[in-house]
Design a protein that fits this description.
The complex is a heterotrimer of chains A (about 280), B (about 325) and C (about 425). Chain A is mainly alpha-helical and about 280 residues long. Chain A is about 75% helix and about 0% strand. Chain A is built from 11 helices and no strands. The longest helix of chain A is centred in the first third of the chain and has 32 residues, at about 5-40. With about 325 residues, chain B is mainly α. Chain B has a domain at about 30-245. Chain B has helices at about 10-30, 35-60, 70-85, 90-110, 115-135, 140, 160-185, 185-195, 200-205, 210-235, 245-260, 265-290, 290-315, 320-330, and strands at about 145-150, 235-240. Chain B has a two-stranded antiparallel ribbon. In chain B, helix 2 (about 35-60) runs antiparallel to helix 10 (about 210-235), helix 3 (about 70-85) packs across helix 10 and helix 11 (about 245-260) crosses helix 12 (about 265-290). Chain C has 2 domains: about 35-160 and about 310-380, Rossmann fold (3-Layer(aba) Sandwich); about 165-300 and about 390-410, Rossmann fold. Chain C starts with a helix and ends in a 20-residue tail after the last strand. Classes of the chains: A mainly alpha (about 280), B mainly alpha (about 325), C alpha/beta (about 425). At the B-C interface, helix 1, helix 2, strand 2, helix 12 and helix 13 of B face helix 1, helix 3 and helix 4 of C.
Chain lengths: ~280, ~325, ~425
């Protein structure tokens, strides 16, 4: 099937897969951070992403802000909202049953989706790029993703806060005993994770368009990515995200549009049958 | 107040009387010439009791499925395809349940080694895969246009059909609640509970965790498939929408509000769901008169309310309503 | 509290709930007789915007008829008012069955109108069939709603264009107008990008059918699908680009069609002729498409945005804007017509007996209203379908707004067809 496609178009398909992959990278990295530090899976992560997209959209429409600059505003807004939700919701049930976390995030999905739908209606919105050429947009999107991921990496690896985060993620109790304020680290990582999601949402609204419901499945895909890429591994999320975008693009080409959402889950199930600990996981998950 | 010596009020007794009362009420309702619509929503209420009880059996062993609509849909599709070809709906229903149980076993094999989130993800993914498969195999499944499901039994009109179906669904719901009760009280149920509370300890005490988890999956898929099959014959139509995430999430919402891993949870949750939804529907004309603009967001408000209830219940009453009710009904010494 | 008191309280609570619920459902009907029309529309779910348009149009028609005094019914020897009862099917078969059952058995409607998604309507029409309630379906695009064989559909009427009409108009237009310009000496290459639903598949199948039956020199070079609610069409469009089509027929809703055309032109560089289907005839479509829609094609049966072509449409548009403050959409027009059609049929029948109303609808003959008919007369054929006249609009971008003009068929033509700017013809 792929051989029947002329090389220039095949390259475009691959490039497109990588651009979509950038969105997955940002989304998965945020989810991965929250999971790593708090051991919480926030299935409502996709809704934070879409919210970020809508905030940037409103800024570019009503304030006339350049969408690429509005990323930073929506990062802050969504990050603060993330911290609040961490305090009000997730913090309350931390350490109780894992099922509660799952169900809480399900409730959050419903609340966030419908709030956005009331505020911004169900019509899809697209952020109009300030540039004439779409190629420039794509270059900027890849650039922004690289920039943010580098910043993120430096934060995690080279700063004191990052060290505290890593310590908490490795051993909560020990971190607490070493004088790290674990609750602050929780808030910080949740805020940071949702801020990364907001970035992904803005970029998504620039390259395609978003509706209040378009975050539900990407969040689950992001979770698939971090399982395949190795839980808690930042590099795994990057490679996994790009790979996932590529696989999806190729799958649509070969199998057709019906399989877009299903293909990742098929791979996930196959991988888990062979390796229940995930591709790069070491311990039982 | 004088104590009545021959009536011993214990929690067990009260629960028994209450359920007895509820069943009596449920049995006589159709004789009151109620409207077909009320019959329809009551039948759906029984369906939700059955569906969430089946889901609950899996949750009782500590495994939360985010994609139970897959088993529901498999049961529904198999019975439809079978009945269309053979006109033997009751056998079709049974075959639907068996196939669903078999698929449940296969999915269970992948899932038993996984922990909560991974299990949720795999089951959810499975329901998404089923959507794609149903659309792709459209010659067989009717694709997105769907299939018309034959009736379970011949009837003169909709009144008669609903009248009998009411009792079929009621029986199914009561049967599934009793079966859950039976399983949960049995040795198997004890093993489920042990696994749910602490898998490692359960393993240490010599429980074959794998076997019991698989068993939970198979039983749950069987009963879900059964419910789905009866549901399909009632609605008279199925398409890929039966696998939608919304359909997978309903038993979770119902069980969590009612009380996770309790027998009465699904019943309380389903009854509550029925009252909330019908209340909101009754309010609709009123909302319409207040502001025409409100009506466009009103349906979204309904779903938002369910989401908010879910969040609040999980934070304030993580065990759901059932334990609170138990506490209330337990006689104080 | 003593245990017995607790038990009594618990029983009392349950009793109160049951009694109050029963009391609600027992509330008797108002004594004055009105004509009750039940509207089945999708006010929530994926087709909510269309449902709202249908509701608004139906309300307008009912208000107009009531202001004129109502409908004269011989049996009552007076003019009766129409009462519209709206039911939301939530774009979901299960809810559709519930709401139609409610409209019939609780609100006791005389006639039903509406229904949008084909899959939902196939499920929700069953209670209407079983209770012999006439149902004028104004939304479903699949012909199976009046042609299904497992049920008696004699009470079902389809006042709506179906996928056969869309595709026939489009392939005829391509053959008549586009082929001589683009591919005079070879077969015209057509690509399809369709929604993976009954509606999209219907468009695809009828396109193949009409190309073969009419013996047209059109080749389908690619047929790609997407899921309802998708927003990313790049991969499918790239694959289509690889097949070098002369035109791309996009069968979808407002949202995905606008997205796909924008992505095709701006991102993929597929500069070809895009053909959208009448479901997109919504104000938002033009807004969203903007300059990307320049000289692209829209198949339609009702053009409120276009240059004036029918007085009835102009009147309706003016009244709609006055009443609701927005330009009307496409699906409401069918519903508006259908309400008038039902009123006329009831007047002809002279009674509110459902069987007589059904006969009157079956034998109706009235001049066309908003939806044009090929012979100008509204009537139902043996399949209970109408014979509508569809047309092709070309959207022109004048620097600020996107405005459609009719380019086909010749009797309605307002402008000559032009190829879009930067058009690249495909290959054989």
């Amino acid at each position: 099937m792929l051989l029947a496609i002329s090389p220039p178009i095949l390259i475009q398909i691959i490039v497109w897969g990588l651009i979509v992959g950038c969105i997955y990278v940002l989304l998965a990295s945020g989810l991965n951070l929250i999971f790593g530090v708090m051991k919480v899976v926030n299935f409502a992560h996709g809704e934070f992403m879409i919210l970020g997209g809508y905030i940037s959209y409103s800024l570019s429409i009503f304030v006339g802000l350049n969408p690429y600059l509005s990323i930073f505003v929506s990062m802050i807004v969504v990050g603060v909202l993330g911290v609040i939700i961490e305090r009000v919701c997730f913090h309350q049930i931390l350490g109780t049953s894992k099922l509660n976390e799952l169900i809480l995030s399900l409730g959050l999905i419903y609340v966030l989706q419908n709030t956005m739908s009331i505020l911004w209606t169900d019509y899809p919105v697209l952020i109009n790029s300030p540039f004439e050429s779409r190629v420039l947009d794509w270059v900027i999107i890849i650039g922004i993703t690289m920039l943010i991921m580098t910043g993120f990496y430096i934060l995690i690896r080279r700063t004191k806060i990052g060290r505290a985060m890593r310590a908490t993620s490795q051993n909560r109790v020990a971190a607490m005993l070493m004088g790290i304020n674990v609750e602050h680290i929780n808030m910080l990582s949740f805020g940071l994770g949702t801020a990364l999601a907001a970035t992904a949402g803005t970029l998504l609204a620039i390259i395609t368009s978003i509706t209040p419901y378009s975050g539900e499945i990407p969040a689950l895909k992001a979770f698939t990515i971090i399982i395949l890429g190795g839980l808690g591994s930042p590099l795994g999320a990057v490679i996994g995200g790009l790979g996932y975008g590529l696989i999806e693009s190729v799958a649509v080409t070969v199998l057709g549009g019906t399989w877009r959402d299903a293909v990742g889950f098929i791979i996930l199930i196959l991988v888990l049958i062979i390796r229940p600990m995930g591709l790069f996981g070491e311990k039982e998950i | 107040m004088k104590t009545i010596s021959y009536l011993h009020f214990s929690l067990k007794n009260i629960t028994f009387y209450l359920s007895f009362l509820l069943i009596i009420i449920a049995l006589v309702i159709p004789f009151f010439q109620i409207s077909l619509y009320l019959m329809h929503v009551l039948i759906l209420m029984f369906y939700y009791i059955g569906y969430s009880s089946s889901w609950n059996l899996l949750a009782y062993s500590g495994q939360v499925s985010f994609g139970h609509a897959a088993f529901l849909g498999i049961g529904a599709y198999i019975t439809t395809l079978f009945t269309i070809r053979t006109s033997l709906p009751f056998i079709g229903v049974l075959i639907g349940a068996i196939v669903s149980a078999f698929i449940g076993l296969l999915i269970g094999l992948t899932c038993v080694r996984l922990r909560e989130w991974f299990l949720a993800l795999v089951t959810f993914g499975f329901s998404i895969i089923m959507i794609a498969l149903t659309i792709e195999l459209d010659e067989f499944t009717g694709g997105t246009l769907g299939l018309i499901v034959p009736k379970l039994f011949p009837s003169i009109n909709q009144y008669q059909y609903y009248f009998y179906y009411y009792y079929i669904m009621l029986t199914l719901a009561v049967f599934l609640v009793l079966i859950s009760q039976f399983i949960i009280r049995s040795k198997v149920g004890l093993a489920f509970a042990a696994i749910r509370e602490n898998e490692l300890e359960a393993k240490a005490t010599g429980i074959n965790v794998m076997k019991y988890k698989l068993l939970a999956f198979t039983i749950s898929a069987f009963f879900t498939g059964l419910t789905g099959a009866f549901y399909a014959h009632f609605i008279g139509f199925i398409n890929h929408q039966i696998y939608s995430p919304e359909n997978s999430f309903w038993p979770i919402i119902i069980n969590v509000i009612g009380g996770l891993a309790t027998i009465e949870g699904p019943v309380i949750g389903s009854i509550l769901r029925f009252f909330i939804i019908e209340f909101l529907r009754i309010m609709e004309p009123w909302v319409r008169t207040i502001s025409p603009g409100m009506i466009t967001i009103y349906p979204k408000m309904q779903i938002l309310i369910f989401g908010a209830i879910l969040v609040v219940v999980i934070i304030l009453m993580p065990k759901g309503i059932a334990p609170q009710l138990r506490k209330f009904l337990t006689p104080k010494e | 509290m003593k245990k017995r008191t607790q038990l009594i309280i618990a029983v009392a609570i349950i009793a109160i709930i049951v009694v109050s619920a029963a009391a609600y459902y027992y509330t008797t009907l108002p004594p004055t007789r009105t004509i009750k029309i039940g509207l089945v529309a999708s006010l929530t779910g994926s087709a909510a915007d269309v449902g709202t348009d249908m509701e608004r149009a139906a309300m307008m028609a009912v208000e107009e008829i009531n202001e004129a005094g109502g409908v004269y019914v011989k049996e009552y020897n007076s003019k009766l008012k129409i009462e519209l009862i709206v039911g939301d099917d939530k774009t979901n078969p299960q809810e559709g069955v519930a709401i139609v059952t409610k409209l019939i058995t609780e609100d006791n409607v005389d006639v039903l109108v509406g229904g949008f998604s084909s899959a939902v309507t196939l499920a929700s029409q069953v209670p209407a069939i079983e209770h012999n309630v006439p149902f004028v379906i104004t939304g479903a695009s699949s012909s199976s709603v009046t042609r299904r064989t497992d049920k008696d559909t004699s009470y079902m009427f389809h006042y709506c264009t179906i996928t056969d009409d869309y595709s026939e108009t489009i392939v005829r237009f391509l053959n008549h107008t586009v082929k001589p310009i683009v591919a005079p000496n070879r077969n015209l290459s057509l690509a399809l990008l369709y929604q993976n639903t009954a509606y999209g598949q219907g468009c695809y199948q009828s396109t193949v059918y009409f190309i073969n039956t009419l013996g047209l020199n059109i080749t389908i070079v690619a047929a790609e699908t997407f899921n309802m609610g998708d927003t990313d069409f790049h991969t499918q469009l790239l694959k289509i680009k690889n097949a070098k089509p002369d035109a791309v027929y996009h069968a979808g809703f407002t949202r995905d069609t606008a997205d796909a055309i924008k992505q095709g032109i701006a991102d993929v560089g597929l500069n070809t002729l895009y053909i959208a289907v009448e479901c997109c005839e919504e104000p938002q479509f033009y807004e969203f498409l903007g300059s990307f829609g320049d000289r692209q094609i829209l198949e339609s049966k009702f053009g409120p945005q276009a240059e004036s072509y029918s007085e009835a449409v102009d009147d309706y548009k003016a009244k709609y804007i006055e009443r609701w403050g927005v330009i009307p959409g496409m699906m409401g027009a069918d519903t508006y017509d259908a309400i008038y059609l039902i009123a006329k049929a009831i007047e002809n029948a002279g009674t509110l007996d459902k069987a007589k109303i059904r006969d009157a609808i079956e034998n109706i003959e009235m001049p066309q209203m908003l939806i044009m008919m090929k012979d100008g007369i509204i009537r139902f054929d043996e399949n209970h379908e109408i014979d509508p006249l569809c047309f092709i609009e070309q959207m022109i971008w004048d620097g600020t707004t996107l405005k459609p003009y009719i380019v086909y068929p010749d009797e309605l033509k307002q402008r000559d067809f032009e190829l879009p700017p930067g058009y690249v013809p495909g290959g054989p």
